[in-house]
Every structure is written in structure tokens, then in C-alpha cells.
Amino acid sequence: MWHERALTVATSVVSGLIVAGVVKAVNNGVADGIVLLWFALATFGAGMVAWVTGILLRRRKRSTRVFLMTSAFSQKYYLADLVQRVHMALDRHDIDLVLKVPEIDYDASAQAHNLNRIEARHREYLGGIIIAAETKRLSADLAAFCRNTKLPVVFTDLEPSERDYPENAVYVGYDIGAQGQLAGQWLLRQLQGVGRPNVLIVAGDEHRARQDRCRELLATTRDGVTVTVDDTCAFDRSRAHRAVRTYLRDLDRGQHLDAVFCTDDEMALGVVDALTPPTAATRTTVVIGIDGVAEAKALIDSGKSPLRATVVQDTQRLAGSVVDVLLRLRQGRAVDKRTSLTAEIYEAT
């Protein structure tokens, strides 16, 4: 680095000048020697200034970057939108975003690899944001990362257990169980007047509180309802499509699929494809998703799709909250261990 070279040169020059000053003092008088010694000290001081300035500049460079590690990215429009919103929020503070995406979506090993890469260079970051998946398998890695780096970390989208991360980490996000509750309440309104309704919940293994709260609400509130949960769809559009086709194939003659709750909009879009064109069993089927992505909202607004509503997670609001909490955590200010945002239903008017 230039400041290290400057210090080396200054030290070499000073050493030579000191020797020359001593010789000068002996041979030609003390006054000439003192002049050389003062010049030597000035040169050394300049070298020290260059060295210290270089260190400060390097530290400043390190403190203007935040990492964001996400659990998935390929064709995940909600996550892509959230990343863009986080970038914009950080940019307003002159902070750069470094994005880390997994080689395989929702894979704990791929996420652990990224954690190790970040930890090896953690001094380059002022803090980080983690969107994790498979948190049970990843919990030890997450806890070790927080302890070892001591960086302020904000978890979002999926919350690890509080015991799995130390004081330098917090959670900011939407209440997952409340999202399922909202979807269940919407379904109850749609199913009024339907005798013995059949409801399919299309879900992944993560965010289990979404499907659990919805299923419990329907089962305890509506008499005669049959709720089937398929949690093997992994937030994947094609898997959701197959799940609905399989469900319809197994329906008894004369039965109907009255409603489908998908625990994200990607799966809801796959379900819509599976219900097109409608059959006798699906002519009145209504679908609700979660996230509020643009494609889902457009279908809802058209009024020509089984997709009638989505539980919106506002990415702009979430990104602003995440960045605000991260910066306050970085400044050593008091923050809540858990910040929960309230979702809303988006439906055709």
C-alpha cells in the first residue's frame, strides 16, 4: 500500500539524516548538525502522517459496505425486489451493498459456504443482513458467525430462534403466523354459504406458521371444512402446479376444490396455471397467496383469474426498517430484539 511505502521511505531517509546530522555535528559544528536533525524529524513526521492517513482511509473504506446474504435468488421475484429496496435504502446513506446468493436455492450447505466467505473478510463490512433458510440445520453456523465476527446482523424474512444468536443480532420482519391468520380470515369470508368446503394449502417446509395458523383457524371456526396441506412445494411454481393437479386427480366425482391458500405468490401463480382452463371441479375456486409481487397483483386486478387476493409484505417498508435497525445497532443504540411489521390483504375492489 502507498502509505506503507511512504513510511518505509521516510524511515530510511530519517535514519540516513540522523547519521549525517551526528557526523555534521562532530565535524562542522553543532548548529549544522541540529539543522539536519530537525529536517530528519520533519521527514519522519511526514511519513507518519502518510501512514496514519492511509490507515484511516482504509478503515473508512471498510466501513461503507454492508453484506446481504439471501437464501434463494433464482426466479424469486419477492426476494429480488427486497434486495433492490435494501440497496436503495443503503445508498441514501452512501453505503454499498454486497450481495451473496447461494449456489443452490434454500440449501443450508450453500448458505454456510457464503457465511464462511463473509467471515473470512468480515473486517470489510460495517454489518450485514441475513435472509436464511433451513434455519434448524444452519443454526450452529449462524450463531458461530455472529459470535466470531461481532458484526451487527439483522435477520429478516425467516427468524432463527433467539437462543441461536447473540446480542449483536436482531430480527426485523413480518409476523409469519399473522400472515396465515389473515389468509384464513379472508378464506372464511369467501366460503360463506359453501356447504362442506374443500380447501387445499400449498406450502413449503419453511414458514410453517403460515399454513399452521390458517389450517387451525379454518378447522376451529368453520364446521364441515376439509383442509389438505401439501408442504412439499418448496416455494416453487412448477411443484405447486403438480400439487394441484394431483389433488384434483384424487377428488371424488362430484366434489369441488373451493379454495387454495399458497404460502407465497410464486406457488400461487403455479396454482393459477394448474386451474386454467377451469373444470367442473374448479369453476368457482378462489386462490390467495402471500408476498404481493407485481405479477400477482396484476392478475388480481384483472378479475379474470382464480387468484383473488394476496397477503402483502411491503418490501419498501421492510427494507427501510431493516436498514434503520442495522444502522442503530451499528451505532450502539438500543434496539428491540424483534421488530414485527403488520401485513395487509390486497384484493380486487
Condensed summary:
The chain is α/β, with parallel strands linked by helices and 349 residues long.
The appropriate CATH architecture of the largest domain is 3-Layer(aba) Sandwich
Kindly give the count of domains: 3
The ordered string of helix (H) and strand (E) elements is: HHEHEHEHEEHEHEHEHEHEHEE
Helix count, DSSP H or I runs of 4 or more residues = 11
Structural class: alpha/beta
CATH homologous superfamily (4th level) name of the largest domain: Response regulator
- Overall pLDDT score: 86
Strand order in the largest sheet: 2-1-3-4-5-11
Q: Which features does this protein show?
A:
11 helices; Rossmann fold; alpha/beta; six-stranded mixed beta sheet; six-stranded parallel beta sheet; 349 residues; 3 domains; elongated; 52% helix
Write the layout of secondary structure elements.
Layout: H1 2-28, H2 30-62, E1 65-69, H3 77-91, E2 96-100, H4 108-120, E3 127-130, H5 135-149, E4 153-155, E5 169-174, H6 176-190, E6 198-202, H7 208-221, E7 226-230, H8 237-250, E8 259-262, H9 265-274, E9 286-291, H10 294-302, E10 307-312, H11 315-330, E11 338-341, E12 344-347
Parallel strand pairs: 1-2, 1-3, 3-4, 4-5, 5-11, 6-7, 6-8, 8-9, 9-10
Antiparallel strand pairs: 10-12
Helix pairs in contact: 1-2, 3-11, 4-5, 6-7, 8-9
